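Please predict the structure of the following assembly.
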Amino acid sequence: MPITSGHVAWCKRAVSLIALTALLIGMLTAGGAAARPDTQTSTRVTGITVYAAASLTDVFPKIDSGPKYSFGSSSALAAQITQGAPADVFASANTTIPAQLFAKGLVQKPVVFTRNRLVLVVPTSNPAGIHSVYDLKKQGVKLVIAAPAVPVGTYTLQVLQQMGLTSVLANVVSRESDVRSVLSKVALGEADAGFVYATDAKTVPGKVRVFKIPAWAQPKVTYAMAIVSASGNKAAAQRFIKEVLSKAGQKKMLGAGFLTIPKAKSGR
Amino acid sequence: MRKALLAFLYFLAAAVALAFLTLPMLAIFVHVPPGRLIDQLSNPVVTDALIVSFKTTLIAQALVLLFGTPTAYLLASRRFPGRSLCITLVELPLVLPPAVAGIGLLAAFGRFGLLGSGLSWAGITIPFTQSAVTIAVAFVASPLYVRQAIAAFEAIDPNLVAASRTLGAGPARTFFRVVFPLARGGLLAGEALAFARGLGEFGATIMFAGSLQKVTQTLPLAIYAEFEVNFDVTLAISALLVLISTALLISLKLTALWQPSEQTSRSRFALLSSS
């Protein structure tokens, strides 16, 4: 194709537009980097892999977009780490699993970094007419919970035991492998009800209705994380943990619906 | 010198491939002492999963054979506008990722699905039931059977069929006395593949039917659930599945040996891919 003067003009305009955009982006990021660390821009710890509980899927990348993340049920991730998976940090939705790994020497001393609440969710259409945990006793309710090995599954069983509602387990139609699968089945309308964390329910606002669990029945949902012993980059892993525990990190966690760390357990 | 080098590389490549394929299966058995394997077989998780797997796979395969055979024969023997489209549609679940198959089944038969909403109005819900597992298994396994069946039927000499008809046999008699015996080998091979695929189905099942012991938890689902709880049980179920698959393969080859073969190749163990 012969190059006409029209082509040249177009090329010049395109180049200047790209240059201007690049300049603007450069100015913004430079401005952001020059600001104090405790501001809106996310800092980046690179070169590490973080294995984290499924309920942290949305909030962790907001705290730090640098690491490679693998989200799943804490129990499955722990099993993978036991089999030699290349994680640097392990963040679990309970304290028992990190403690078990610590006892086996697979992770360093775990530190508590946040708390959460369990809630009952139903599809917005509420096909089974559930309005409280007690309504789960109704005949034919399709209840979906997580498998007992998964933290949220254990918490669910604790709640039902506390409330004297273990008979409700007869209505369970599926034991899912992680909390987000439970959430999906409810959000899709296939299940009548499910138990998830309050933070998960916030991720699908229009699709589910949330019912609180009475405070006296609420289990102690405490999240703990630890550096994996076999990690090749422990310094960066430590920096990541510090980030999550920092004021900025905790602010983002609270924004997502997580709860503050109890002072005595901060473990620092 | 060069010939020797090439020959060495040729055998090395084959050795690497064979080792790569056998190592994972052997490793399972090295990890599980036979005594522990037998012990785990009495574990209710294993026995329940075995029963669910076999019930659902057998019913699904019966459906696949019942509906798949006439479909394959139709597509193989007749030419009609849209035939290629039909064949592509039949083959589609084969290339579909299983999770997508699961989502599709939910979209079709789920409570708010295309067909499902009508069914639930009539009081029939499919997700989370054993029927859902059967449907998922049939969906992913049928293309394997139908494809092989089409190839098997297409390989039959049409003169034989024509001869049978001219001699007075009706279409049904021709099918059962002429077509079916000739196609038997290919149909069996297709069914073996479909059976194996159905037994191993995971993605569509977990999406569409969920996972509940005694109801919908098949052997692969039990492996997934037990992985984070008890690795021994996981190994035991895996070893069981390896043994079942091996038995399947061997019995297929043995039945093929009993049939008059029209193979012109000297090696008989290539029969699995024959049409």
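Chain B touches chain A through 21 residues (CB under 8 Å). The mean pLDDT of chain B is 88.
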